[in-house]
Amino acid sequence: MKLSVVIPVYNEIHTVGEILSKVLQVDLPKEVIVVDDCSTDGTREFLKQWEASEAKRSKDQIRILLQPENRGKGAALRAGFKEATGEIVIVQDADLEYDPKEYPRLIEPILDGRADVVYGSRFLGTPRRVLMFRHTLGNKLLTFLSNLCTDLNLTDMETGYKVFKKEVLDHIHLKSNRFGFEPEITAKIAKMNYRIYEVPISYSGRDYWEGKKIRWIDGLKAVFSILRYNFFDSVTEDIVYQTLQRMKKLHRYNRWIFSEFQPFLGRRVLEIGSGIGNITKFLLDRDLVIATDVDPMYLTFLKNTFGQYKKFLIGNLDISGSELEPYRSYHIDSVICFNVLEHIAEDEKALKNIFDILEPGGRLLLFVPSQRWLYGSLDRHLGHHRRYDREELRKKLEDAGFRVIFLKYFNRIGILGWYLNSRILGRKKLPSFQLKIYNLLGPFFKMEGLLPLPFGTSLLAVAERPE
User: Fold this and answer.
1) DSSP label at 227?
2) What is the mean pLDDT of the segment spanning 315-331?
3) Mean pLDDT lowest among 155-164, 214-223, 351-360, 449-458
4) Strand, coil or helix: 108
5) Phi-psi region of 113 (alpha: psi -120 to 50; beta: other; left: phi over 0)
6) What three-state secondary structure class fits 457?
7) What is the rounded CA–CA span in Å between residue 402 and residue 463?
8) C or N: which end of the chain has fewer Cβ atoms within 10 Å?
9) What three-state secondary structure class fits 88?
10) What is the largest CA-CA distance in the chain?
11) Helix (H) or strand (E) holding 380
12) What pLDDT, in 10s, does the model give residues 71-106?
């Protein structure tokens, strides 16, 4: 695998040449991306000369990026990440506190498939320079607060050595411009459920007269960043992902949906569009579960969450496509398709493919949004092609060859919230506080079965492939 080494630099004229030399000495296939954050001490001029002379001699690809103004470490790293082409990205400070000889140890958990992210910990017992107790105490307090918010057990959240699979950085929307990068990236990879490893590293901390830039005010800003990125910020700008994360917390609602289908569920299950596993988690007692999606981010999430279970398989499946033959050999007796069919342009083809995958007597458990007149801004931003009317859905199922066992409306009270947010207020996503209230009132909504009115936010369907 190719390594991308991203080095943010600001006023490091006394150390930048040596650190670059040490990086190039590491015998790994790599590119070196140096991002100068508008240095004023001659670093910028040195880098231009160094690039012109060293780039011709080095076997590694070297690129120098010059920020137009001083924007901070976080902004410099974003610029470097954007240009990185390697499968693995490592952050390297330019101040000689971290030794590039550690690279093989840092990337090992990613190379052998154990990790998506690796932190190099200064506090796991390897040789280090003894220096500044108050800084150590501050680091441990910040790590403790971060762990409290993320439920991780890191020993060194603020470490300068962080290593990522490139796909991890591609999936995360970073915002912090300065030293808030460390708590921000930690909060967001925790929310994404990426596998994180720590490995011990050596550390040669420097004093302020040597150029150390962290001040006490940065510690206070880090506390603010920990709280902000854990509780008040989204991991990504992807509205579908944000919605899935919000729905993940609706435990009563998700259990309610699953309980409606559970009596019809077989032992060998294919789930189409598993997302982040909000329904998948209810399938642990099945004999075989194939959880699928088309989004690489969700597939990574599913592998990290369910990959340790031998009876779980994770696969990339476009149910409206033609690569279905491998799934027929699993003798699927149940297909779960919850809030997915409305995202598929060729829904009739998808239903026919599901029919073909199922064993005779197998069942499709289908959950879709209903009421065409409810279609609005929420649907558009979630990528819905349509909402379904009851008889329309019945006809599509029967045209695909299914025998409809039952078809009913679900979540009648939810129509009010969807109409308000989607048709009147024109929102992009459902507000978190509304969803939390809805989840709390979930037990009362189950009483809707006592009065089966001919409308609802969604449609539940169970359809069978005839013997």
Assistant:
1) H
2) 90
3) 214-223
4) helix
5) left
6) coil
7) 6
8) C
9) strand
10) 81
11) helix 377-382
12) 999 999 999 999 999 999 999 999 899 999 999 999
Tokens of 238: 């992807």
Residue position matching structure tokens 């939390």: 436
- Distance, CA of 179 to CA of 214 (rounded, Å): 9
State the Cα–Cα distance between residues 381 and 270, nearest whole angstrom: 27
Q: Crossing angle, helix 216-231 and helix 133-150, to 10 degrees?
A: 10
**CB of 83 within 8 A of CB of 65?**
yes
Total residue length of the chain: 467
207 pLDDT above the threshold of 60 = no
- Domains defined along the chain, listed by start: 3-231 (3.90.550.10), 239-464 (3.40.50.150)
* Side chain identity, residue 338: F
Angle at the Cα of 444 from the Cα atoms of 439 and 450, rounded to 5 degrees: 135
**403 in Cβ contact with 459 (< 8 Å):** no
Q: What is the rounded radius of gyration, in angstroms, for the C-alpha atoms of the chain?
A: 26
Which residues share a beta bridge with 260? none
Whether the predicted pLDDT of 325 surpasses 90:
no
Locate 455 and state its tokens.
Answer: 């409308």
pLDDT above 70 for 131: no
Residues 6+ apart with CB under 8 A from 382: 239, 240, 243, 343, 429
Phi, psi angle pair for 152, to nearest 5°: -95, 170
Residue 146 and residue 189: Cα distance in Å, rounded?
12
Distance between CA atoms of 271 and 289, rounded to whole angstroms?
7
Residue type, 73: K
User: CA-CA distance, 286 to 330, in Å (whole number)?
Assistant: 13
Q: How far apart are CA 77 and CA 181, in angstroms?
A: 9
The pLDDT value given to residue 198: 97
List the structure tokens of 61.
């690809």
pLDDT, the chain, mean: 91
Residue of 230, 247, 121 whose CA lies nearest to 185: 230
C-alpha distances (whole Å) from 321 to each of 87, 317, 353 are: 28, 8, 8
Residues of the chain with pLDDT > 70: what percent? 96
3-state secondary structure of 356: helix
Sign of CA dihedral 250, 256, 260, 266: positive
pTM of the model: 0.81
Amino acid identity at 205? G
Mapped onto helix, strand or coil, the DSSP state of residue 187 is helix
